[in-house]
Every structure is written in structure tokens, then in C-alpha cells.
């Protein structure tokens, strides 16, 4: 079932709220706020697709609400339609110049309200679809580098602010150049697609992210994950890929496709997002220098230790 789009209506006059709610609730999910502060809270929590905003309100008027929405990363792209009794051309121009997408004057005309709401919700749906496509890697259908950067910096700030663990990992397909040279780029693309599906399917939680980093490299963002848990997840992925038994006749490591990975976790020595990612990259390099088909994490933990523990178990 298609999910209804959400509209936030903001007006300090209760009768106006109920009038607009009655017009729109059949086709949309309607949220209502009686003042500017309540509107900002609802917008941050529920991420509506459109805001219908009264201009003249006590304490915090519509212009101030719009400015606050535009200065918050969570709400800056939500389209806003001003609804007001101020019908002078200069009033409408001021509203549009401040960032509103449309301007509807009172008394409200039911047909006009419905038509303009439908138009702007359609435009917003199209904008979000295009934004989604811009964040997806065309080959693997995983998030691309652009989305990776956005999510990574958001999770980094959240982890530092709330003193939560955060781990990242970089995965590289072993001897992939040799695979392409021997089997052709079409087969190489197919292998990357299969690996992307496997990596994404083996993530532990909805908040985890797997993205294509470029070429044959993937990056995992693992919020609220300590170093040992991150290493165990990557080691499980390494074994899963090896057990897929995808033939690799030109590999210097194995007769099948394998991966190597470097894992790093948030600590005092990594005081920037770039430093943490660089540490994971250094450990990936160590994994490749150690013979590939292994995972290097904290204190040089790798799959050789895993094999020893596995045999003891």
C-alpha cells in the first residue's frame, strides 16, 4: 500500500487548522501545530513533505519559522506554502523571496488549496526520487560515495556528541585487476554486483551502511559497534564470500574470489572522520601485505587468529 504524504499545517487560529484538516485529511496524513515552536518540533520529528504556514502568529511569525526550518539540516528542504490574509503583491513577493514555494491568500478557496497542495507534493516526490537516484551507485545499487560521505559525517557527529562507539571498514576484492584481465570487465561487473548484494545482506542492523567506495572497494559504516564486534562482522563476511566459491582463475590467493578488509573504531587518536577512515585504509593495506583474504582490526587481529580459535572450538 502506498504511504500517504505528510502535510504540516501551522496556524494559531484553531478554526483555520480544522478547516484545512478537513480539506486534506482524506488524501494525506495531516499534522497540526498552533505556534512556531510546536511547528519546528513536529517538522524535525516527522519530516513532512509540505508545510502550510500562517504568516501572522504571536511570538514567532511565519517568516521566523521559515528561517528556522531553512537553517536546520533536517528540515531545510521541506517546501513551505504561506497561507495568509495579507494579499498585497509586495507581501507575496516578500514571502517568495524568503524561500516559500507558493503563497495562498485567505479566505481560502477549496479548489485552489487542493490544486496547489497536489502540485507541490508532486514536485517534492519527484525531487526526492531524483535525490535518491543521485545517491545510488549505478552498477551495484548500493549507496554511492556522495551518500557515504553524508551518512558518515552524520554518524561521526552523533557518536562524538553522545559518546557512542563507531566503527568503519574498507573492503577490497583481492586480485580484481587480474580477474578483469582474465575474465573481462563484464564478468568483473557481475562479480561486483554479487559481492555488493552479499555484503548488504550480511549487515547486522538497519542503521549499518554498505557503500561502494570506488572501483572494487566498499566501505561499511557501523554505528554503535565496538572494534571486536566490527571485526567479527567483517570476518563473517570474508568467510561468506569465500564460501560463495566464485571462480577466480587468475587469483594469486585462491581459486575463488576473496576479499580483504581493514577495520577501525572511534578512539582518541582519531579525532577526525578522515583520520578514522585513513586508519581503516592502513589496516586494509596491512591485510593485503599479509597475504590477502584476511581482516585486520585492532591490535592486528586477523583471520589467522580466527582460524586458530575456530579450530580450537
TrEMBL record:
CDD domains: GGDEF. Its EC number is 2.7.7.65. It is an enzyme of class 2 (transferase). Residues 6-121 form the Response regulatory domain. The modification 4-aspartylphosphate is found at residue 54. Residues 164-300 form the GGDEF domain. InterPro entries: CheY-like_superfamily (IPR011006), Diguanylate_Cyclase (IPR050469), GGDEF_dom (IPR000160), Nucleotide_cyclase (IPR029787), Rev_trsase/Diguanyl_cyclase (IPR043128), Sig_transdc_resp-reg_receiver (IPR001789). It catalyses: 2 GTP = 3',3'-c-di-GMP + 2 diphosphate. GO terms for molecular function: diguanylate cyclase activity. It comes from the Bacteria. This is diguanylate cyclase. It comes from Vogesella aquatica.
